[in-house]
């Protein structure tokens, strides 16, 4: 490392003899897809291993380091009493904590339980529900500990993940725009599926980051990056209706990977109560 | 130059040869073609790529391709892109920096020469929009040299409008439907009992020499008259108008109008209007570093005043509300652009109306602001 990994501040606590900062990847309630995105950075993996010391990453290696860690990537939502204790521990041993993916930033698809009685699911799914210790809600990491940065998506975008890591190494702020998917869609030169074909699309209220993938394949965005930083559902829901969605469709499209994101949840509850 | 024609009539074969002649001169020919349910701008490999027989049905927030019996190639308007896609691309590298093992830094700029474009089918409003971006990006003390080199190497083939869309208002903005200055060649498409043909006029020596090179015939009075009346008729068929008032004064005088609250309640702040607008030029800088820390790049990419981060200062965004962001867009296009660049920032192409998912219409907003001002102003001030 020739660059100062800590970006000009005091030496990082987890650095090894080469000055490489330490990286930890943690898993909570999740499908592992975001962690796989880390491993999917094939071309960069060798350079990544040269730039950081991967100290804790059970998906890739069974070797568990001691901590503290310079950079922790956290996948998954908090759903059990054990998770509560573990996320507090992760925060304690992490200099910077970045949540990765819809589960860790919004509660994930498992947050559908937040809209129902979790006890009812337990009795249907498990033979011995009394063996199960679970929380009533699936919650994002930020509901429990301070988070330095949230990366959206189900799964996260590989380019954004590398941006976070390289920005961290260079001591600069990562470039993770929070505007709508439409910005990316127009920059990519995609013909708008809503305007040209009347296809419902969540792009105008969804956080950028995927590069407007779905519209590029002729499909409407289904909001896997969650709400953008400026949503106006009062104007947006009538647009979905114009393009053929009924109340149930609107509730369903908002209740997927980011069902419990506050903006999505508020609108789906309001629609459901209609 | 004496016997080189300044005007002539060509047929479909003439248009095909024009594309071949432009390619033979090493130009990348870009023009309208049908893709994904719209007439988009893309590189043309030949005349067959042109949207013969396709028209468009436009409304606020709605775009549909429709087949046309007359086989016209240029009877469409306001696609999802404009020429800025090519002249002012959405993302471009500015420079790269590398650090060698001794710690010495080397900065380098892109050395690849700008493409030599030929734009076929530049509408009169877009011809003006290009002139406006010229002023913005090369007319001040800090010019965008990449833009300049692409622009200087570009050849413009304008096509006058005979079939304006329901969202067009170039007449109100004084930009069309006849082509103003700035073209190398201008075409007017005529389809009638006498056949499918194009009246061509050369605006520059290169345009004239191209015209000389392709099969053409003398411009006959019948074709001239048909072309002229088609363009005149188009002026009477504008789908939209701006209020016939001083728009700069209207914007300046209505900053606290209630109408801004109304439009803010409808606006998604999605940014589509600024992305499709042929004059919007805003960009942001993007710095990239790699995992070694020894290589970095500076890029610039399109940005919009609808992005909260656009005005982000240590205390937060200056334009935090949708109200202030929509107002910034409309007042910049119609008002403060005059103060900044000496002209309107709107050319009346209607793209922002069509491609706004919820169909917010800048002409309707301007009319509403004018009505609100008039309702409040004493009679003598009107
Ligand atoms: S297709 Fe969707 S994301 Fe793309 S511009 Fe249209 S509404 Fe926005
Ligand atoms: S403001 Fe709208 S109508 Fe005016 S030039 Fe821009 S996109 Fe065209
Ligand atoms: S309207 Fe907005 S995006 Fe367009 S040029 Fe003005 S400030 Fe820039
Ligand atoms: S005016 Fe329309 S296109 Fe522009 S930001 Fe608002 S909703 Fe989006």
Automatic annotation (TrEMBL), chain A:
InterPro entries: Hydrogenase_assoc-protein (IPR051349), NADH_UbQ_OxRdtase-like_20kDa (IPR006137), NiFe_Hase_small_N_sf (IPR037024). Keywords: Oxidoreductase. The keyword Nucleus does not apply. It comes from Actinacidiphila acidipaludis. PANTHER family: COENZYME F420-REDUCING HYDROGENASE, GAMMA SUBUNIT, F420-NON-REDUCING HYDROGENASE VHU SUBUNIT G. It comes from the Bacteria. Residues 31-167 form the NADH:ubiquinone oxidoreductase-like 20kDa subunit domain. Pfam families: Oxidored_q6. The keyword Disulfide bond does not apply. This is Oxidoreductase. Signal peptide: none annotated.
From TrEMBL, chain B:
InterPro entries: 4Fe4S_Fe-S-bd, 4Fe4S_Fe_S_CS. The keyword Amino-acid biosynthesis does not apply. Residues 256-288, 337-365 form the 4Fe-4S ferredoxin-type domain. Pfam families: Fer4_22. The keyword Metal-binding applies. SUPFAM superfamilies: alpha-helical ferredoxin. Keywords: Iron, Iron-sulfur, Metal-binding. PANTHER family: ANAEROBIC SULFITE REDUCTASE SUBUNIT A. This is 4Fe-4S dicluster domain-containing protein. The lineage of its organism: Bacteria, Bacillati, Actinomycetota, Actinomycetes, Kitasatosporales.
